[in-house]
Specification:
Blueprint: H1 23-36, H2 40-56, H3 60-76, H4 80-96, H5 100-116, H6 120-136, H7 140-156, H8 160-176, H9 180-193
Length: 195
């Protein structure tokens, strides 16, 4: 995984004083420290304890964040079903609070899970939704990243025309920002995809 396992959903309050932190928050922070030290097993135990504590405290944002950390750990171990279950927990909470950016983050995680699991049809569907989400939120870099992943997925399922279309869309985005080098690079990728 190229990104670090520090997915935190928006709205998680920062608590400054150690003595003011709940045991669940302390477990969560220990989990983050273990992740930074590449101690996945200890991080998983800390996040699991944090999850239980957040549930007892009725801290939905804490539950959502701990669930997403556990999803990352499960994904790294290729435990896809538990990863999706943790995402579903976070998604339910974030959807109820209409937290758009967290919902997008969860959708991206689910798309990565399906892609790594080789369930390309489900991954493609989610990446198409992500392209739309990132267009709505006016995030061209995330749109380009999603389109590039989408193109790679289309190539894996041998849909060369859709892969080329994705690369051409990336080229047009770069052209609109006057990124000439990138424009030509993705035009070339689109032509190569059709071979």
């Amino acid at each position: 995984m190229s990104q670090s396992n520090t997915t935190a959903l928006s709205g998680f309050p920062e608590v400054e004083k150690e003595e003011d932190k709940s045991p669940a928050q302390q477990d969560y922070e220990r989990g983050m420290a273990f992740l930074n030290d590449k101690e996945a097993a200890q991080a998983a135990a800390a996040f699991h304890n944090a999850l239980l504590g957040f549930e007892q405290d009725n801290d939905e944002k804490g539950v959502a964040n701990a669930s997403m950390q556990l999803a990352d750990i499960c994904l790294a171990k290729e435990e896809f079903e538990p990863a999706l279950q943790h995402c579903a927990t976070a998604d339910k909470i974030c959807s109820a609070s209409e937290d758009t950016f967290s919902i997008i983050c969860i959708k991206e995680k689910k798309a990565k899970i399906y892609s790594q699991w080789s369930k390309y049809d489900k991954a493609i569907k989610l990446y198409i939704e992500l392209v739309e989400d990132y267009n709505k939120t006016r995030n061209p870099q995330a749109t380009v990243n999603s389109l590039e992943t989408l193109a790679e997925l289309y190539l894996k399922v041998n849909d060369k025309e859709k892969a080329a279309d994705s690369y051409n869309t990336i080229a047009r985005i770069h052209k609109s920002f006057k990124h000439v080098t990138y424009y030509h690079r993705y035009e070339k990728k689109a032509a190569e995809a059709l071979k």
